[in-house]
Design brief:
By secondary structure, this protein is α/β, with parallel strands linked by helices. The protein contains 10 helices and 10 strands. The model has no long low-confidence stretch (mean pLDDT 94).
């Protein structure tokens, strides 16, 4: 089946093609289940696009340009941490620079609402983050589920409505009871993205490192491992060490380099050179 892409322009008027626009995603709310993966490398991004993953999330990182290039047609959101910036002007300036690189949306994980409203004035698409927000875990009692009581669910709903009012088009909802997610998703115009919050959202989200089994931390309860890359990496590291050991052994035993690894010279030429060297002494 031939994939259909829409022509888009970046803020710098660079032409490109995407699988979705923000308008498409809003229109699809409640009609089609979508997938999102957090990727960290160009290889992961290219694999996600080839696998027809709908949406990508990427941190603002030095590899961002290469990641965008590796998956040029997949809708991409970039996470910009507020903690690096002193003012809303600085954070918006950085958001504009990221969008200019061909990114489709910004995620405002822990920004305050005033910053988000300010960003909206520049017509930059952005999404919020609610539920278990790691940077705010001290306010919710640590790394644990949010919204398990009536009062917590109400507070969560109000936070999401505040994000909606700030001008966001979407919200990531993390580690919330699936029934709470279902109820909230039906009562907000935001495209809801679930990570650890059940299957009643508009988008289902996981990290590539969890899917691939290459995380440096224990697999979260809400994640599913589809491959065991860490096992492959450990085997590769063992093979690296063995190869280096064999190389050293070959060198010490004069088994490397052999004649086939070396460049030859005609006897008459080396003899002339050696004669020249003897005369120089």
């Amino acid at each position: 089946m031939v994939k259909k892409y829409k022509k888009v322009f970046s803020i710098s008027l660079e032409q490109g093609y995407r699988n979705y626009t923000v308008r498409d995603l809003i229109d699809l709310k409640g009609k089609k289940k979508l997938t999102q993966i957090h990727v960290s490398t160009p290889e992961e991004a290219a694999a996600a696009e080839e696998a027809s993953i709908d949406l990508l999330l990427v941190r603002a990182c030095p590899e961002l340009h290469s990641i965008r290039k590796a998956a040029p047609k997949t809708f991409m959101t970039v996470s910009i941490p507020f903690i690096k910036y002193a003012s809303k002007d600085h954070i918006v300036k950085d958001s504009l620079e990221v969008i200019e690189m061909g990114v489709d949306s910004i995620t405002c994980g822990s920004w305050n609402l005033d910053f988000m409203k300010y960003l909206n004035g520049f017509q930059i698409p952005f999404q919020g983050h609610a539920g278990l927000v790691p940077r705010r875990s001290t306010w919710t009692g640590g790394i644990k589920a949010v919204g398990k009581t009536y009062q917590e669910a109400i507070k969560l709903y109000k936070q999401i409505k505040d994000i909606e009012d700030s001008g966001a088009w979407s919200v990531e909802i993390e580690c919330v009871p699936h029934k709470v997610m279902e109820a909230i998703s039906k009562n907000t115009s935001l495209v809801t993205i679930s990570i650890g919050s059940g299957n009643k959202s508009d988008v289902q989200f996981l990290f590539a490192e969890d899917i691939l089994g290459c995380s440096s931390i224990k697999l979260p309860r809400h994640a599913k491992k589809y491959r065991d890359f860490n096992r492959f990496y450990q085997k590769m590291q063992k093979e690296r060490i063995n190869a280096f050991k064999e190389y050293k052994k070959d060198v010490l035993q004069n088994n490397f380099p052999l004649k086939k690894h070396s460049i030859d010279i005609e006897n008459k030429e080396i003899e002339k050179f050696q004669k020249y060297l003897s005369q120089e002494k």
